[in-house]
Amino acid sequence: MTTPSPAPLDLNNVQGDILAGLPKKTQTYFFFQIDHCRVPEFRKQLAHLVPLITSTAQVQDDLQKIDNNKKSVAEYKPAPPLLKLSGVNIAFSQKGLTALGIKDDIGDKAFAAGMLADAQDLGDKGSTVSNNFVPDWVPAFKQEIDGLILVSGESHLTVEEKLLEIERIFQIGTFNASIHKMISIVGDVRPGKEKGHEHFGFLDGISHPAVKDVDKTPNPGQETVRQGIILLGREGDAVTRPSWALDGSFLSFRYLFQLVPEFNRFLQQNPIPGPTPDQGSELLGARLVGRWKSGAPVDVNPVKDDPIRGPDPKFNNDFRYAFPDDAKTQDRCPFAAHTRKTNPRADLEDLPPPIGPVSTESRRIIRRGIQFGPEVSAAEAAGHKTVQGRGLLFAGYSSNIENGFQFIQHSWANNTGFPIEKPVTPGFDPIIGQTTTAGPRTMSGTNPKSQGTELDLAAEWVVPKGGEYFFTPSIKALKGTFAAA
After folding, report:
1. pLDDT tens-place string over residues 399-438
2. Helix axes 260-269, 277-289, angle to 10 degrees
3. Residue spans of alpha helices (H) in 419-480
4. Is the separation of the CB atoms in 95 and 477 below 8 Å?
5. SS3 annotation, the chain
6. Which SS3 state, helix, strand or coil, does residue 222 take?
7. Which tens digit of pLDDT belongs to each residue from 102-146?
8. Where residue 74 falls among pLDDT bands split at 50, 70, 90?
9. E strand spans, 50-92
10. DSSP states along 84-140
11. What is the Cα–Cα distance from 441 to 422, expressed in whole angstroms?
């Protein structure tokens, strides 16, 4: 089992997507099943993959190279091309651990059961077949998925080259293949000025916690969490783990489709009264999300966007829902706004006794992932209806799925009574909140001048179509526990 005082964290031992994020313009999620007749072969071949695995230390080095290249862009003309960089990480489901003969209890019930068993409690839509709930997922995610290989790069060509190298290692597509592709999903950073924005148009990925002794210069308002909130076996992880689980992290993956034309139409049809219709629709979108599209928080900018400071990491997290009357009114930000639901800050941390204060540290996760699918076409925009699939490949890392992703979705986003101790019922998270009943989704506070009025959210604009819980082992564990010499 993990020792009480492990050696200091070595970033060469932690897979790179967890603490730093694999640099990418494009990323492929390759989901696989281990051939149960060729487990020994797979473990031997895995040993040949390990040298390709990108560590956090390597990501930090790559990010420095990218930063230096950007500086040369500003100094020299013509601009140099993008650096050719690739990154590879691997993770395993509980089924994958079982297939490999790894029988230790890793200490997370959600991981052990898998996301398919969790789908109904998460609020995913589906039907009951022979007394079993079957979510409306794409077929691959309703079958056994043993593992996930992430491959990132600056271009599709670079990623495809790396994938071919990986396929040769495991002899994929041949009679002797040790793993079989279940589904492969390509994600791409959105083009031009939409870079960094998810498909609804809002700047994304800007509220990660800093990790103690890893992120040494956190931005204003950025919470620093103990290493064990993200990594197993470190300070802050209170669960007893197998010794080989040290410095690994659980990965909660969700295949999320976004109904962008329908979302935009809803905003057009329900503008907040007062400003012009277009401004009222823009304000409604900001109050649903909790941020303007630039990234500026509505708690700081409740009436108008600040497109200059919105993208600035020195500004866009420097708030706590702690302005006078924030706890009791929705003047600045609705209680159920997406960003407030999923990171409530002062709503829990500043609660007075006997209920509070309540720390949110154990609920924090590090979100990665990437957008997938094409931009909205002119025909889709005109018809207000999604034709082509697009959305988010959501990836969230933490040391405890039950405390992290699962809790955030079930107990915060889907819970109409959260945040607690409010004068009105907040309602659902309008972006990811899901109802497990036949009733409508509603939220209060969208109109700051009529805060008790509930808005019928009409539809769920984010539709889960698959997912799984994975464990991303340390590189040492890959060598010593998962692979065979």
Report:
1. 999 999 999 999 999 999 999 999 999 999 999 999 877 7
2. 120
3. 475-477
4. no
5. CCCCCCCCCCCCCCEHHHHCCCCCCEEEEEEEEECCCCHHHHHHHHHHHHHHCCEHHHHHHHHHHHHHHHHHHHHCCCCCCCCCCEEEEEEECHHHHHHCCCCCCCCCHHHHHCHHHHHHHHCCCEEEECCEEEECCCHHHHCCCCEEEEEEECCHHHHHHHHHHHHHHCCCCCCCCCEEEEEEEEEECCCHHHCCECCCCCECCCCCCEECCCCCCCCCCCCEECHHHCCCCCCCCCCCCCHHHCCCEEEEEEEEEECHHHHHHHHHHCCCCCCCHHHHHHHHHHHHHCECCCCCECCCCCCCCCCCCCCCCCCCCCCCCCCCCCCCCCCCCCCCCHHHHHCCCHHHHCCCCCCCCCCCHHHCCEECCEEECCCCCHHHHHHCCCCCCCEEEEEEEECCCCCCHHHHHHHHHCCCCCCCCCCCCCECCCCCCCCCCCCCCEEECCCCCCCCCEEECCCCCEEEEEEEEEEECCHHHHHHHHCCC
6. coil
7. 999 999 999 999 999 999 999 999 999 988 999 999 999 999 999
8. low
9. 86-92
10. --EEEEEEE-HHHHHHTT-----S-HHHHH-HHHHHHHHT--EEEETTEEEES--GG
11. 19
- pLDDT at residue 96 above 90? yes
Phi, psi (rounded to 5 degrees) for 185: -120, 130
Q: Is the dihedral of CA 433, 439, 444, 449 positive or negative?
A: positive
8 Å CB contact between 431 and 199 = no
Distance CA 303, CA 320 (A): 18
Is residue 150 within 8 Å of 22, Cβ to Cβ? yes
Q: Is 55 helix (H, G, I), strand (E, B) or coil?
A: strand
DSSP type of residue 185: E
Instruction: Specify the DSSP element, H or E, that contains 81.
Output: none
Chain segment 234-264, per-residue pLDDT in tens: 999 999 999 999 999 999 999 999 999 999 9
What is the distance between the alpha carbons of residues 279 and 200, in angstroms, rounded to a whole number?
Answer: 16
Output the CA angle 419-400-56, nearest 5 degrees: 115
Q: What is the pTM of this model?
A: 0.96
68 contacts: CB under 8 Å, gap ≥ 6: none
Catalytic residue numbers, as ranges: 204
Q: Measure the CA–CA gap between 132 and 129, rounded to whole angstroms.
A: 5
Is the backbone of residue 84 left (phi > 0), alpha (psi -120 to 50) or beta?
beta
